[in-house]
Design a protein that fits this description.
The structure is a single chain. The protein is mainly α. Helices cover 65% and strands 0% of the residues. It has 2 domains: 47 residues, Arc Repressor Mutant, subunit A (Orthogonal Bundle), CATH 1.10.10.60; 129 residues, Tetracycline Repressor, domain 2 (Orthogonal Bundle). The protein is globular. 21% of the residues are buried.
Length: 221
């Protein structure tokens, strides 16, 4: 082992350990995109070219690995929520939040499931962060409703339903930006107090016959 591999950096990790950690995170995002966040940890280790023991030294649980793999995306979501609360126009803040999360869903195929899954938080810090995000979202919703822009019967759980719908679309059509943008516009318009507020983005080139529906691979079908 070279001398440089034994030198610890500012994060306390040796160069080789930091390299392994980076490879694991890259592999995790690829594996989660292809097989979902429930994919075997051994599959991630194999894709990263490291042993399972090495993976677990860096990420002792699946939850820790998932959070680390999508830490930047989660940070972006948190920052967007903070900016939305600071926006003097609560509807604009609400709209930007949904568009940002959906953009991240489209860009990183493994992120939708990670964002929507309810992982058991292993630390008080993570639990508090989740609770604060929920309170902030409720505050944003109430402000937009008080301004008369967001329909009065909107519930925060409706946002989860909307993101699940968009998640399904980007999973089936990961490269169709037009379909994604149009669905997001439809969802946002349905949330507004005034229906059909503003024009929709251009339609997708998708035709009904080209939709990749689930297939039945059972014998005789």
């Amino acid at each position: 082992m070279g001398e440089s591999s034994r030198i610890a950096g500012p994060d306390g990790l040796r160069t080789d350990a930091r390299r392994n950690r980076g490879r694991i995170l890259v592999a995790a995002r690829a594996v989660f995109a292809e097989h979902g966040i429930d994919a075997p940890m051994a599959t991630v280790a194999r894709r990263a070219g490291v042993g399972v023991a090495t993976l677990y030294r860096h990420f002792p649980t699946r939850d820790v690995l998932v959070r680390a793999a999508f830490a930047e995306q989660m940070k972006t979501c948190a920052g967007t929520l903070t900016e939305a609360l600071a926006d003097p126009d609560p509807w604009q803040g609400f709209q930007r939040l949904i568009e940002t999360v959906c953009e991240l869903q489209r860009e990183e195929r493994g992120f939708p499931a990670a964002f929507l899954a309810a992982f058991p938080d292993s630390t008080v810090q993570h639990a508090r962060a989740r609770e604060q995000a929920e309170r902030d979202l409720m505050t944003l919703v109430r402000r937009a409703q008080a301004a008369g822009a967001l329909r009065a019967d909107f519930h925060p759980s409706d946002l989860t339903v909307a993101l699940l719908a968009h998640c399904g679309l980007v999973t089936a059509l990961p490269h169709d930006r037009a379909a994604s943008r149009r669905l997001v516009a439809y969802l946002l318009q349905s949330f507004r107090t005034e229906a059909a507020h503003g024009p929709l983005p251009p339609p997708s080139a998708l035709s009904l016959g080209s939709v990749p529906l689930a297939t039945d691979s059972s014998p005789g079908r």
